[in-house]
Each structure stands twice: as structure tokens, then as C-alpha cells.
Amino acid sequence: MKKRKLKIKNILILLLIVIIIIFTLLVLFNKNNNTLEKIGYNSLEIQELEKLSKEELNTIYKYDYNSNLIYIVSSENYNKDRLDLYMDYTLKNNDIDYLKIFNIINHENFKEENIDKYITHLKKFDNIDGIIKYVNEYENSNVKLNSTTLSLIKEKYFIIDFLDRYLNYYEKHKDLEYKEIITRVNSNLDYQFYTDSNKSDLTKEMYTLVNKYNYLNKDYVPDNLVNVTGMYARDKAELVNVAYDNFVKMADDARKSNLTIKITTGYRSYNFQSTLYNNYVKVDGVKNADTYSARPGYSEHQLGYSADLTNAKNVAFDDFENTDEYKWLKDNAHKYGFIMRYPKAKEYITGYMFESWHYRYVGIEIATYIYENNITYEEYYAYFLR
Ligand SMILES: [Zn+2]
Fold first, then answer.
1. pLDDT, tens only, 163-174
2. Separation of 360 CA from ligand 1 center, angstroms?
3. Using 50, 70 and 90 to split pLDDT, how confident is the model at 27?
């Protein structure tokens, strides 16, 4: 009898222990559930939120109910390290669409120290890229902020010093995209060819820009000219040594593919250009001659870094586009530091018709950038070298 009583007692104790364990586990499991529920999340939301890490949940517990939280944490752009910012700023600014705040915080150029300034502008504007760039870079300038200036600022090649020119150009060309306004003004198209021109900035050395807005003096002759002869030239030509060395490398590599690239003219003196241009004018008139020949002083050939090219058959310029040499150069010249200086579809920027034969040496780094970004030297120079 006594033995049996003891057995029942043991069973009861065991049962009690089991109940306590189950109860503790239930409490532990439901802890999140309870806290989230207390904050105001519904069971569906809780189900989603419970998939988050403990750390994330602890962050969420610090804040009031956030009706956008589920959208935020289930977005593919959600960054758990910024959860505090999402919570804080979407709750504080419920007059702003949470998505705008979310996107600002996720932006690649987002700087946490500027967040309050971004948010202030978000109340008035939608242009997130523009706001970020403005606050990060131009806040201390005198830019009058409106949707037009923000759209201009957002553009990759925006130059703050040109803002007034962009705005003027925009007033006259409202049909154009902002990107195109930037391209045109950076290339000086709001000015007149030859009329609004300046002396080329020779302090830029091998990067000097010569075009219809920038000219060389009559007596300018580059240093370090070398003769191009033999298999590298049709007759004879001259180039500045660094351009020559890289041209030789390029021609030698092309030869490995059975292609022959030769120079017809490299450096041209002011006087030579003068004779050339005047002869063209006699035949074609000024207007036509200007599309393919530079006025004296305005020819890049006078710099000594440009070369007109042909092949083994000495094809005429107009036919060079159809040669295998051209096809090779198009995708390889930049590897040797040369750019096609007057590309197709950029005639309105360069002021010259498409010249498949005219290459300019600018070094590998710049040539590669220009090739990969499909911009002209005018655009590159304005943004990176001016
Ligand atoms: Zn040329």
C-alpha cells in the first residue's frame, strides 16, 4: 500500500515537471508574438515578422506600430542594417510616402548625416536622385531649387558652373531631355562656332581641346614631333612622339590580323591647314567646307596628336568606313589610347561630319572611358578636364 502511494506521488511530480516545461516553452515561443501583438501588429503581420532575426525584432520592439513595416522588410532592397532608420523616419514622417523614404535610405549615395535634409526636400520634390546629389554636393551653392534644377543636377555630367546656361538653353528647347541639354551646353552648343571661340588651354598639354570653339595660335608647333615613315605612313607624316609610339603598337597588333593601318596625315601646320581649307572653300563654299575641314588654327591636326588613317590599298577617306581596318579600329583603337574623334550621330556636337578615318590620341584611360560611355571628347573634356 505504502509502495503504491509513493509511485503515484512520483508520477504526479513528474507530471508537474512536464507541465512546467511545456508552459515555459509556450511562454518563450509566444514572447515575440505577445510583444508584437501589444504593439499592434495583427496575426498575419506577426507571422511575417517572426521570420526576422532576434536583433531585428529587438529593433522593431523599440518603435510604435508601423503599417509599412511588412512592405519594408519584404522588399528585395531591404537592408537590415538600416532598419532603425526605416522605422524612425517613416514613423516620424507619415505625411511622406514611406516608399520615398525607403528609397532615399537605400540610395547608393545616401549619407546618414544628411538624412534630415533629404527628408525636408522629399516633402516638396519626388526626384530622389536629384535630392541626394543636391544635398551631398551642391547644398552650399546658390542653386534655386525647383523641379527643373533638380532634374538637371541629377544628370551624370551636370556641371554646377553651367547651371545658368542649362536653364537658358532649356527655356529655348523645352522639348529636349535634360540629359541632352547637359550634353549640348557642356559641348558649348549654346555658343556660335568660330564666333564665340577662345584660345585652347595649352596647360592641358596632350589633353588640349581644339575644336570650333578653341583654337591654336598661328605659330603653335608641338614639341617632340617625330617622322612617321615606312610601313606606318602612306607617304610621310609627323606625330608627337607619345602618339607615334602608341600608333606603332596599334598598327603592329593590327598586322597580326592581316590588317594594314597607315597614316596619311598627322601634324599639319597652320599654314598648311590654311591652304587646305581655302582650297576646299573655293570648290565647295564655306558652308560645306566647314562640315569636313577645319579653319586654320581650329584644326586638331595642328596639335600633333591626330592622325588620318588609310589601309594597304590607300582607300579614299570616304571608303575607309567599309574596310576591315575600320571595323578593327572601331573596337580596338581605345586600347592604344586613340579615339574616333568625329563619330557617327555626334556631328551636331563635334561640328564635323562622321570621319571614320580621323583618330586622336588621348591616352588609354581616357580613350577607354570615351569608348565605353559613347561620348565625344567635347563632353569628356568639359566634365573631367576643363
Ligand atoms: Zn583628320
1. 999 999 999 999
2. 9
3. low
